[in-house]
Amino acid sequence: MDNSTLYTPNSLEIFMNTGKRQHLQDIYSTERSTKDDYTPQVSNEVMEERKRDIRRSQFTSFALGATVLILVLSLVYVVISEYIGVNAAPTTPSPVTQEYIPRYSLPAESQWVLDFSRDYADPQWDGEGERPFNATWLRKATFNIVLGEQAHGIGQLAEAAEYYENALEIFPQIEGVKIPLGMVYFKLKEFDKALALMEDAKDADLTPDLLNNLGAACLSAKAFDKAENYLKQAIEQRPAYAEAQLNLAVLYKEQKRADEAVAAYEQYIDLRPADFDTQHNFALYLTKLGRWAPAAELLDTLTQEITDVPILFFLLAQVEINNGNPTKALAAMQRAMQLTDPNTALAYMDSTEFDQLRESEEFQSMIKALEKPRE
Fold first, then answer.
1. Which residues does 186 contact at the CB level (< 8 Å), separation at least 6?
2. Residue 152 has pLDDT above 80, yes or no
């Protein structure tokens, strides 16, 4: 037996050798570890994967944001639409079948007409035998009268005339329709039709307003005798009827009945002292008649009320010249010059009416004052 001692590894050496073998095995292992991420090939794959994750996250966020935005816009649209709808709602009830006849505007006994269409107003029939006289045709006639009254009341004159004519077509002898139809034709200025309807009117239906309208219609139609008759009847029934007095004055003026026209104008002005336009026209009429004194009196009063209309003062100057009052004429002309531009004033002063003042010192001074601003 060899005296040399056999070498037997102890437990520590065995452990260390085992650790080395394990370490060597780990080096050649195919499993990935954290450090493998830092190799060039693996690092690129990881970066691509992370980029894909980021893009997916961005797309998801964009889709969610777009969805939320669409929902918000839809909600805003619905809210605005509801608000506009509420505010645009009509505040008054709409008529049931007649566009311009509110139900509440009709008397209770006439509201039944709104249950029919406008076709019910048609007066046509088959034409065989005599026109039926029954409940249906009575209702049709009444239907037209009610519609005519309502249309007349709101100024739809052509429609009113049509409905009244329908009622007369159904029953030609019906009373209480011709007068309102005639009034409609007056307003439409269809005077011949109006006169044809009203000439045979009963005295009870001839009110002052109707008589005045008849007179005005006859005046427009140059039927002067009838016009005078109607107008005088209107004034007889209503002595302070200013409009009839004015129509009478115009009638006498057209007939060249000067004294009667002047008297009618004066009566009208007494009743309507604030109608300055008619007073101006009356003053012009007096100058055409050569009645300078009453014209001067009228214009003197008128220019005290209206102090800023140059034509009135030029007219007053003309009248005062013809009255032989050059001082008053120059004073009126001076006031007119203050109210208008130089060119207009010079045009008025060039009238032959002022020839007798043209050489006076005051007139020449006014001419120079007007011409100076134009130099």
1. 194, 213, 216, 217
2. yes
Considering just the CA atoms, what is the radius of gyration of the chain in Å? 52
38 DSSP 8-state letter: G
Return the residue matching tokens 């004073």.
331
- Residue type at 323? N
| 3-state secondary structure (DSSP) of residue 342 | helix
Least confident interval from 1-15, 183-197, 225-239? 1-15
Alpha-carbon distances, residue 112 vs 97, 146, 183 (angstroms): 11, 10, 26
Distance of CA 298 to the CA centre of its chain: 39
Q: What is the pLDDT of residues 77-124, one digit of tens each?
A: 877 777 776 565 455 444 434 556 666 677 787 888 877 888 888 888
Closest by alpha carbon to 301, among 277, 328, 279? Answer: 279
**Domain spans of the chain?**
282-375
CATH code of 282-375, in short, is 1.25.40.10
Contact of 254 with 273, CB cutoff 8 Å = no
